[in-house]
Specification:
5-stranded antiparallel β-sheet, 7 strands
Amino acid sequence: MLSRPMPERLLAKTIAIPLLAIALLLASLGVARARLRDHRTTIVNAVAEARSSKHPTRTVDPLNTTALRRYIDSRSGDITAAVENLRTGRTYLWNPQERAETGSIIKADILETLLHQDMVSHTPLNEDTAEVVQGMIEESDNDDATQLWNQVGGASGISAYDKLVGMSQTDPNTDGYWGETTTSAADQIKLMRQLVDKHGLLDSASQRYQLGLMENVVSGQNWGVSGGIPAGVSIALKNGWLPLSSDTDWEINSTGRIKGDRRWYLIAVLTAHDPSEQYGIDTIGGISSLVWRALRPRLSR
């Protein structure tokens, strides 16, 4: 007997059922493979995290490296320095008992005092005062500094602000010679911290304003804690320089905030009894370069 050909609908169903089964099987295999990949990824990440916890970023004291100690030993004059690594919150000191006259780094203190007073009194800077401020910071104009020193209340106004900051080792000159204020490197770090601390004495607008001026000092004053810092890194600084007993006896200081290339720190280097102005500048530049190098992020082994 001849068999009848299978109807087309029945034939389609007969073929579709195994095809559907195959599709479902492939889909389930795909899900399984995806889950396996996710599982493997989870394991890899867990292993990496475990290794990272066993090998955290190594904390280095940038003021206690062999290279820096040797360098300071090779320089004449008195040197004191402080560094705060803002990524770790640790502060490091070199020769912390030393005190120095501020010279023009007091101008950063004058501006912070002014900005804080204006915040408290809800009085914004007017255009005339802003112009004087710019001259004091960017060009280190002494007449501008004297005007603002008097405006904030002189030594008593500066002392009141410094007390709020916690600067117990700074004595503003009571005779009006603001450059002869004495200070420590540690106190200068406390002062600079107010420019980056979210919960400090200055609001974010005041911080940005002062840092912006310190990032824009005239080219002839862009030395000191900028030494050895590559292009593209943000440098906000204020320098000070003055002869002490003679033209062969100088006080050279530099303070600032460095941010970029996986580093973020505050630094203050104060020197006294340098045989020349350039000698002191070179000393601070050399220290800055070694600090920058020492704070390069690295993993412990």
